[in-house]
TrEMBL record:
Coiled coil (residue ranges): none
Domain Sodium symporter small subunit: 8-84
Domain of life of the organism encoding this protein: Bacteria
Membrane-crossing segments per the record: 17-40, 52-72
Name of the protein: Putative solute:sodium symporter small subunit
Pfam families from the UniProt entry: DUF4212
Organism the protein comes from: Salinihabitans flavidus
Keywords: Membrane, Transmembrane, Transmembrane helix
Length: 86
């Protein structure tokens, strides 16, 4: 990352990945687990309703997925900009 343009591109992409991940996490945990829970109450999943599942387990699983996606995407971005650790 020798020039300022490359730094700006790297950080802009990094911030965009973070913001997208946070929006997905907020939508799943707060949106589906709290706000939309009454709408999801009639859909059965594993012996309970979908709203409860999102509030208790789904948001955690989505969060873990976001962590793995972020690590994979940042490793790729680091390689693209020549700042990878390998």
């Amino acid at each position: 990352m020798a020039d300022n343009s490359s730094n700006s591109t790297y950080w802009a992409t990094n911030i965009r990945i973070i913001l997208i991940s946070l929006v997905i996490w907020a939508l799943v945990s707060f949106g589906f687990g709290i706000l939309l829970r009454p709408l999801l109450a009639g859909i059965p999943v594993g012996g309970t309703d979908l709203g409860f599942w999102f509030a208790q387990q789904g948001s955690i699983l989505v969060f873990l997925g976001i962590i793995f996606f972020y690590a994979w995407r940042m490793n790729r971005l680091d390689r693209e900009h020549g700042v990878d650790e390998e």
